[in-house]
Amino acid sequence: MDPCGRPGDCPRECRVGDLEEFLGGQEDLARRTLDAADFPLYGVVPAAGPGGPVALVAFGGGADPAPGWVEVGTGDWTSAAGPYVTVRTHRPGADRYEPLPELEDVVEDERDRVYEQLGVDEGDTPGRVRALREWITVDGRAHAVEVHEDRRGLWSGAPLPGCCPMGGAEPVWAGRFRVDGLTVTVCGRGVPPGGVELARIQDPESCLRGRTALLRELAGRRGRCLPVERRELAPVTGLEAHREVIAHGISEAAAVEARLRSGRPPRPLRGARAEAGALRWEAAVRQQMRLASETRAEAAEAVAAMVEQLRRLSQLTHWVVGTPEGDAAVEESIRYSVFASEVASLPAQRAWQRVRSGERMRSGERGEHRMGEQLWLAAWEQWRVARSGH
Questions:
Q1: Which branch of life, at top level (predicted)?
Q2: How far apart are CA 69 and CA 60, in angstroms?
Q3: Is the pTM of this model over 0.85?
Q4: Distance of alpha carbon 25 from its chain centroid, rounded?
Q5: CA–CA separation, 353 and 362 (whole Å)
Q6: Mind listing the pLDDT tens digit for each residue in 41-73?
Q7: Band (119; pLDDT cuts 50, 70, 90)
Q8: Residues of 269-305 as b/e, b for ≥16 C-beta within 10 angstroms?
Q9: What percentage of the chain exceeds 70 in pLDDT?
Q10: Could you give phi then psi for residue 75, rounded to 5 degrees?
Q11: What region, left, alpha or beta, does residue 180 occupy, with left being phi > 0 and alpha being psi -120 to 50 degrees?
Q12: Which helix (H) or strand (E) holds 79?
């Protein structure tokens, strides 16, 4: 369960008793949250939108246990085609304490959900984007809504192993409006904004029952997937798995940094999360175990240290990405991690070990840690200058 109460991390392999205990705990948490919500909730009128039971799908943004917002979903969550609509009701005055999410981010949240729950990657970049003005009926009254719509083409690539293979990416839209002093954010796929009608939720217990059913089905689906540690993976040759996990680590860091610079919340690339990221990581760890004759724990730590060094180096210098020096740094770091080779960048590799050891043990003052990081960067700069000859 993530910090916003979204049904993401259901147990993978557990006995029936463990699952029932998990579901019971989640239902108690959700019930306390709804009891503490001092504002009305809105949801889709089933007869005027996607059918199916309503489910509490997320909550958060407030002081425990009172939520700052509550989100319910209605429709077919098992299909990338929908129809599926979520309705998030914000506590009065919520925008005075923290900015409401941009509509573009609401759309990306929905695409994240489809990726994490169904294994369908609809891409990290926007498609054909339109700003629309639509009308949504709430309790029988029409309300003007500014809508952001993102229409993307068919997704490419293989579905994630053991998950639901789907072959299409429907347009996703999000809109926001105010009603009776409340801010409401709506997101949908497979149904136009004008085809949605909302009303106050009169039976919160139905949302709890829907949430429990959703969690149970997610747990069942994921329970049929073997953990990556026990799966048969395609054989990896040479050091390619190490190169791939480093490349994705650097790309993810760059994407997160770009969003932070633009004032947007960080959002890791989908290919670096969930099953795809776990499979990529597992391939590198297995190859590290085989080539370095290490235990799983030792190999996992070696891969983590290697990736983190290149990720951080790419953030603090200008030469790691797209230069011969950067390519050489990657190769030397891999050879040092796997074979303990006496590479030219050995002083930098050892300096990084000291930095990482201090961070892991949380030892020393901040100034001492900063000095260690500066010595590490200086060792890399000395290596780069010696290699380039200037």
A1: Bacteria
A2: 6
A3: no
A4: 24
A5: 14
A6: 999 997 656 767 789 999 987 766 688 999 999
A7: confident
A8: bbbbebbbbbebbbbbbbbbbeebebeeeebbbbbbb
A9: 83
A10: 120, -160
A11: left
A12: none
